[in-house]
Each structure stands twice: as C-alpha cells, then as structure tokens.
Amino acid sequence: MIKILSVASECAPFVKTGGLADVVGALPAALRAHDCDMRVLLPGYPAVLAALGGQGVPAMETRAFLPGGGEGRILSAKREGIELLVLDAPGLFDREGGIYTGADRRDYPDNPERFAALCRAAAVIAAEGVPRDSGAEVWRPQVLHLHDWQGGLTPVYLRDLGLAGRVGTLLSIHNVAFHGLAPAEKLGALGLSAEDFSPGGFEYYGQIGALKAGIVFSDRVATVSPTYARELMTPEFGMGLDGVLRARPDGVTGILNGIATSLWDPAEDRELVARFSSPRGKARNRRALAAEFGLPAAGDGPFGDGPLCVVISRMTAQKGLDLLLEALPALVERGGRLAVLGAGDAELEDAWQAAARDHPNVAVRIGYDEALSHRMIAGADAIIVPSRFEPCGLTQLYGLRYGAVPVVALTGGLADTIIPANDAAQKAGCATGIQFNPVDLAALRDALMRLGDLYRDGPAWSAMQRNAMRHPVGWDLSAARYAEVYRELAGVE
Ligand code: ADP
C-alpha cells in the first residue's frame, strides 16, 4: 500500500466550486483498487467542520508551525468513505463568505497566508505523520499530491524540513489561470526564504507565485488531460507559465479526469423523475426539464421541434458563454430550446437573464444547484460546452453518461473525451458528440446548426446517444495511471 496525502482547497461532497472538488473527492475510492491509501488534507471551512460534526479526532497541534503563528490543529475523521485530515484554524478559515472570496466577490487579502498554512501543514504531516485511529502507530505519507496553486508551496516547506527527495511530490494543475500571487513583502509572513525569490525559484515578475513554486519544486507535474498537457506548454494556453513548464525535463503528464459513476448513474439517480438506462428512457425527464424551466413543451420554429439543450457552468469568459449568447439564434430559430444553470461574472449573468426575457425558448437559473444539474443532464438532448480553454471539463462526461450529446469546443480535455460526428466516425458508427474549431462565433453557429440537423436524423441521433452512454467515463484507467506515478515517486515497484 502506498500512502498518499492529497492536499487540496476543495473536496466533494464537502466543499466545491468546480471540477477540482470532484476529482479530489473521487480519487481516494478510485485508487483503493490500485493499492493506494490516500488521505485528503482540507482547510477547516465551516462546511468541512460541519461535516465532521464535532467528531474529528485531534491529530496534531499547529501553533508552532502555521505561518504567522496562528492557532490551529489538525483533526482526523472518515466521512463519506474519505479519510480526511482537516486544518482547523479558525483565524484563517472560519469565514461567512465563499471559500476564496468574501461577500464582495473579491479574493480574501490573506489568501496567500491561508493556503500557505495548508501547505505548511502538509509538509509537517509528511515529516511527523499523524496517529492512526488505532493509536500508537503513525500514518506518514510517501507521496504528496498537490492541487493547483493552493498546494503549490508545499515542496518548498518540505525541502526546508529536510525532506526533499524523501517524500515524493506531484503537482496537479487543474487551471493554470490562477497563479496564487502574493506581494514580495509577504515572504516573511509566509515563512519563505528570500534565496528562492528569483526567476529560477518562485518569483513571478516581482511577486511570489505559489503555482510557480509548485511547478519549479515538485518532483512531477501533471494536468487533467493529455491535450491540455501539450497546450499548457504553449504561450497561447500557458498563461505566462508555459516557459517554466517547458523547462521541466519531464514536461507535464496528462491524465484524464473521470467521473464518479456511482454518483452519476442514470439508472440509480434519485434526483430524476424517471431513472433510465437507454436513451428512450429520457423522455419523461425531458418533459419535466422543460416544465421546471418554464420552457415551451416543444420547440417552435420553421423546422418544428429541435433539441432541448443545457449548459451547466461557471459564468466566466473561459467558458465561452458570451459566444453562445451571440450564437443563440442559430439554435432557437430552428426550434432548439436551452436551459442554463450557472453563476459567476455579474455582467454575463445579466446578459443571460436578458436573453431569457427575449427568447421564449431560453431559460436561465442563476445559482449553484447540484441536484438540478442532475435533472438537467437527464432531460437534455444535448449539453453545450463552448469553452475557450478547458483543462478537462466534467459536464461533457456527465452528458455522455446520461445520453445528452455533448457539443464542445475542440480544446483541452474536450478534445480528448468526445468522438466527433465527422464522416469517418459516423460511417464507423462510433460518434459521441459534436466538436467545433476554432472557438469562434462562426464555428459555434455551424455546430448548433449541425446539432439541429443530426437531431432530426432519427437513426443517426439515436446511434450517437447510445454510443455516448456506452463510452467509458469512470476512473479505472486514470486511477491506474496515477497509481503508476505515485509508485515511481515513492520508489516502489
Ligand atoms: P470548472 O472546474 O472549470 O468549473 P468542470 O467542468 O471541470 O469546470 O467542473 C465543473 C463542476 O461544477 C461540474 O461538476 C459541474 O456540474 C459543476 N457546476 C458548475 N456550475 C454549476 C452550477 N451552477 N450548479 C451546479 N453545478 C455546477
């Protein structure tokens, strides 16, 4: 059994703002079959402490080592099948607002300190271990799996504790857009040495870069799809870190995300009005979805009824939802309907609400609603993911499993997970979705029109839905890949 500590700022089902949480929450169970004993170190946000219900077992006092000397402790508990270690530091994590931002939607000014504390805790756990439930014995990780900038400083603290080369480190980049920058004046507060503050270390143009620290000092760097691994090393997608990534002799390993097929199973999903295991079984969910969103019972247009589409997404420029707004006529004028669930940039939220007022075939819910997202994917004919960049993307995977045909941009993990309905794939009978490229308005419009055409071609459409539902989207292959990387890092066969 290899012992791995996953160090993350989110973990489903306890705390989630995006796909990172799903991955961190799914890996421990997926890895068990591969002889990996993974625990997850999380910040003690109110939601996480609530999940512990006051029952966490104190495993370590942290007063001595938190940057800034704040008080705290590490609690250990098993919840939802996941062995958790929780950094209970109220001064850092007991906040009313979001996990990264306050009520004003701005980042907390002490985010660098908050997540440096998480990294420091990870390094100390690697050094000292934590007691096992059974008492005297100690659980000490052989590998630390760090996620995004929030875990990025860990290898620096590890080295400072004399553990470099003795505990393996893997940094996973889920989104390179977030660098975790802090002003140079925080070096002392973060317990970092000025010696590393150079372009060859963690300095990023005069600031401390936590993600850069992870890239420079970790033993391995991975990301969540093979295509994004290649894209990350280009100036177009690397967001200023492509050069640092290219400088790593071993480059970036791409391991595709899976989804928790037990939570996303149309045959067992308690959220649905009708559970199903073939595309025909979607009909009642489709009617219920239209009703729930107040959409007409059938799309109305010169072409008759069209596909009922959904979008479930953060509302940011990354996700291409501004493009989709502009491309809407190509969908709705041909009888397509669209139900959107999302939250994010105020401007985009407003624009989508205005579109819903203008188009009877468009309905929008602003907010975050996990249960609704299940009902939407179950009822949808198609799910649209027009991202400008997409490290992996999870909603297209849910779409595949629930027979909601994905219409996706040809980028990152979207390129790696969908078999596009080109002539070859259709002749071979293996298409699972529609891809468009480049990611611009004209290509998206074409894709939406093609969606309408395919939808009206009964046999081709049913074949695509069946292919989609059969496509493997679980964790098996990827968990095996991670296990291989952990074994290499731990130096065991
Ligand atoms: P990202 O992590 O960039 O936001 P992903 O596609 O990897 O994108 O993961 C997003 C996750 O968050 C998916 O599980 C998706 O279903 C979920 N999600 C996003 N927005 C919402 C929302 N408004 N309501 C419910 N779930 C959402």
Protein architecture, described:
With 493 residues, the chain is α/β, with parallel strands linked by helices. Helices cover 37% and strands 19% of the residues. The chain has helices at residues 19-32, 46-52, 90-93, 111-128, 154-160, 210-217, 226-232, 235-238, 242-246, 283-292, 321-332, 346-358, 370-379, 395-401, 412-417, 423-428, 441-456, 458-470, 476-490, and strands spanning 2-7, 36-43, 57-61, 73-79, 82-88, 130-131, 138-139, 143-147, 168-173, 181-183, 203-204, 207-209, 220-223, 253-254, 308-315, 337-344, 362-366, 382-385, 405-409, 434-436. Strands 3-4-5-2-1-8-9-13-14 form a nine-stranded mixed sheet, sandwiched between helices. It has a six-stranded parallel sheet with strand order 17-16-15-18-19-20, sandwiched between helices. A three-stranded antiparallel sheet has the order 10-12-11. A hairpin with a 6-residue loop joins strand 6 (130-131) and strand 7. The model has no long low-confidence stretch (mean pLDDT 94).
